[in-house]
Amino acid sequence: MTSTENIIECREVSKNFGAKVALDRVSINIPEGGIFGLLGPNGAGKTTLIRIINRITIPNSGEVLFKGRPITQNDVEKIGYLPEERGLYRKMEVGDQAMYLAQLKGMTANDARKELKQWFVRFGIQDWWKKKVEELSKGMAQKVQFITTVVHKPSLMILDEPFSGFDPVNAELIRQEILRLKDEGATVILSTHNMESVEELCDDIALINKSRLVVEGGVDEIRHKYGNNNIELVYSSSEQVRSSEGKFKVLSDEDNSGRHTAVLSLEEGVSTNEALAALLDQGVPVNSFKELIPRMNDIFIKLVTEEE
User: Fold this and answer.
1) CA distances (Å), origin 117, targets 190, 270, 294
2) What is the rounded end-to-end Cα distance, in angstroms, of the chain?
3) What are 33-62's pLDDT values in tens digits?
4) Which terminus of the chain has a lower count of CB atoms within 10 Å, N or C?
């Protein structure tokens, strides 16, 4: 049964380019109203999947559903798509270019001008309206392209490496705008290599490697699943904490003038409460005690390396 909570469902999608397999029976569900990270190394098949969702290319087999039914060209016209390969007409004025692209998405001239002017002020680029595109830096041009991708308020936005080419200040500006668009009800598919952005922005992810789906699910769920069952312990003592047979092993213990930071590895099946009780039985003066959850970057490297 199709879930009405998914805006996009890819079912057993495969795509070949001659003898090259770009996608091999990939099935993913993209929940409505969240930010979905589409991850994978270069050449994994992410861009091919994005182009299939946008009906730029057609799969050899499988199907894409939009809100529970086969996606149509009318649906695609309502999607905001920022491709990795940026491109604007270099000889046009920025304002004319933005107006043209907004009207291609069905906006009236009056609505387009009003919305674009507001976006240009928000991005601090109101003085660029009459500049030629060829006068813009790469980062400036990407700001314009981001605006023209989202100005028509699409319910689904697909952003392929949206932070590429931006300095930290402007990358943060784009991050905040993505979060604002989500808060207003939009669904965002974010294809990126920036794992820090994935942790900060994404609710769910799918990792594709060598044309196949490796893992899919909520970011927190995946981080916990691939954790090493390690605990960070901070305590104050002149003596170091000892391993507890059947409970935990001490992997490291750094002493900074009597304030220790230790990493404990829990034995299989041991809960954090049981480990904490064992520490208290030792008389360890515990200041803090928390699960060490791996970063998405470490999980990404682990899964891709294991696949290879």
Assistant:
1) 26, 58, 43
2) 34
3) 999 999 988 888 999 999 999 999 999 999
4) N
For tokens 């270099």, name the residue: 90
- CB burial class (10 A; 0-12, 13-18, 19+) of residue 117? middle
Level-2 CATH architecture, domain 228-292 = 2-Layer Sandwich (3.30)
| C-alpha span between 266 and 290 (Å, rounded) | 12
Report which DSSP code applies to 81: E
CATH architecture of the domain 6-224 equals: 3-Layer(aba) Sandwich (3.40)
β-strands 20-31, 35-39: how paired?
A: unpaired
Q: Domain residue spans in the chain?
A: 6-224, 228-292
**Distance (Å, rounded) from C-alpha 99 to C-alpha 85?**
21
Best CA proximity match to 113, nearest among 143, 151, 163, 156: 151
Of 251, 252, 268, nearest in space to 260 by CA: 252
Q: Is there a contact between 52 and 27 (Cβ–Cβ < 8 Å)?
A: no
Angle (CA) 140-146-149 rounded to 5° is 145
pTM over 0.85? The answer is: no
Cβ-proximal residues to 102 (8 Å cutoff; 6+ apart), any chain: 112, 115, 116, 148, 151, 152
DSSP code of residue 256:
E
CB 132 within 8 A of CB 91: yes
- pLDDT band for position 140 (cuts 50, 70, 90): confident
Mean pLDDT of 174-198: 91
